[in-house]
Design brief:
This protein is of the alpha/beta class and about 270 residues long. It has a single domain, classed as 3-Layer(aba) Sandwich (Rossmann fold). The protein is about 30% helix and about 20% strand. It is built from eight helices and eleven strands. The strands form two sheets. An eight-stranded mixed beta sheet has the order 1-11-10-4-9-8-7-5, with helices on both faces. It has a three-stranded antiparallel beta sheet with strand order 3-2-6.
Amino acid sequence: MSPRRGPGRTRVRGLDEAPPPGAAEVFVQHVRLGPDAGTDGYPYDLPVVRALRASGGLAFDRPVTFLVGHNGSGKSTLVEALAVALGLNAEGGSQNFRFATADAHSPLGEALVVRHGRRKPRSRYFLRAESFFNVASEIDRLDREGGGPPIIDGYGGVPLHERSHGESFLDLFVHRFGPDGLYVLDEPEAALSPQGAMAVLARVHELARAGAQFVIATHSPILLAVPDARILEIGDDGSWHAVAYDEAMPVVLTRGFLADPARHVAELLEDG
């Protein structure tokens, strides 16, 4: 893949390049397609997967990496596959969760090869916004069965189904996520108010400074403001390039709309 340059865009390191001097050490350094990965059919015919093959892999050199792009760009497919490649449950949860309510995840996770850093995370977790309800239900089931300390204690002690969707997400970030953890998140803003998104921004930054690593697929211009994060924008052709915060698509579109909402609404209704 040929990296693109321009205002706010920086070169994305290739698979074999060393991190820049002084870069924070991360748990996951690179991910690429393995030699036995398929070439035809879903998900291998997706543009982002073809770009992953052509580029030799995706490098991570910062504690926080965001993936942004239009709906259907493949960012959620990538983070789900990364979670599975790391041994996490496709529907979400920690490395100890092994439930499934539907066999709906792609085989891409089994085809990925992950290059790890020297450090090992104290914990790993996959938050998939659309199936977090199922994680909460599994926690309830396991705690009813007993056999150990209540799992819900690690989420603040209040059953997640007794909290609002947004409150349960905040409980996860505050109580379950900790320093030196590896966290893969798919659209965590889905249940959050703007105030909640700002609280998550602060928590992600706090944990990143304490040795955690995050890989996050998001549409949120608020979350993208985490200091020192790498923002990778996936284009229509599946290739990605690093962008500065002010150039990220969710930021540009949101700012444009808020600057003149009446004009944008009129244009949208006229087009409809």
